Amino acid sequence: MHLYRALKELYAQKQKLERVIASLEELRLSGSGATATPAGVKRRGRKTMGLQERQEVSRRMKRYWASRRKRADAGKKR
Hints:
Low-confidence stretches: none
Structural class: mainly alpha
Largest sheet: none
Helix content: over 70%
Number of strands: 0
Number of domains: 1
Mean pLDDT: 85
Number of helices: 2
Strand content: under 5%
Oligomer: single chain
Distance between the termini: 83 Å
Shape: elongated
């Protein structure tokens, strides 16, 4: 049973060492100008929109606010 416990502890230490090594390699890569995020990992943050997407959002929001103003004006007249 002691052998099983020793192996389990060694595997846990191995996983910790692999995480530390990976983080050190990322630091090394970030200093050289290479990307620090590993391949296949999605970055967090906002998605950038192209010109056409921004124009479509602008048109949609103008319609939205116009309808809101129209409903607000209709409510005041009653």
